[in-house]
């Protein structure tokens, strides 16, 4: 398809030497310990907005990479609608360029989504990367929109429902499960996603969560 040439979105880098970079290193270290519930908790004395910003960038990069491994199987013909199984279909709207939700193929939807998220992450007024620049007052609602109303969850849901056989063939399922579990524990810890949104993967979420109780 035409996607693979322009995909995948450039990885969003957190500037080395910045406080956010230190936070990312902290997140990676605690993740390495294998305790995901502990890894998502706000480190003592840290700013909540900054912690959510760093993790949002990290999830964007992870999903980018995971989806990148299956783009050849997610095409206009194989996935003419953006769905997560027969009961859940997603239509795209970003509230500015496309106000009324439109029906589109999964690769088109994910391309719109990743471009939209990238634009938000690159906007210094929303995601300041410079030390001492404060986060905007509406930062939490911006982060919630990226993580929820939209949306990164929907890419996981689509991969699990429509492409899990490809993920298995590529032997990527452990990577996908760990990434998704990390994402779910994070959004649960900070109450970032409405439970109803999670319905397409509710059984999987309960299964992954029960192993960590």
Give a short summary of the structure.
Zn(2+) binds at residues 74, 79, 158, 163. One of its GO terms (molecular function) is kinase activity. The chain is mainly α and 213 residues long.
Characterize the structure shown.
Helices cover 56% and strands 2% of the residues. The chain has eight helices and two strands; from the N terminus they run ααααββαααα. It has one domain (19-47, 60-210): MOB kinase activator (Butyryl-CoA Dehydrogenase, subunit A, domain 3), CATH 1.20.140. α4 runs antiparallel to α7 (173-189). The N and C termini lie far apart (43 Å). By secondary structure, it is an all-alpha fold. A hairpin with a 5-residue loop joins β1 and β2 (89-90). Mean pLDDT is 85; it is low at 1-7. The radius of gyration is 17 Å and the shape is globular. The protein has a two-stranded antiparallel ribbon with strand order 1-2. The protein has helices at 3-6, 19-32, 36-39, 48-70, 106-122, 139-169, 173-189, 202-210, and strands spanning 82-83, 89-90.
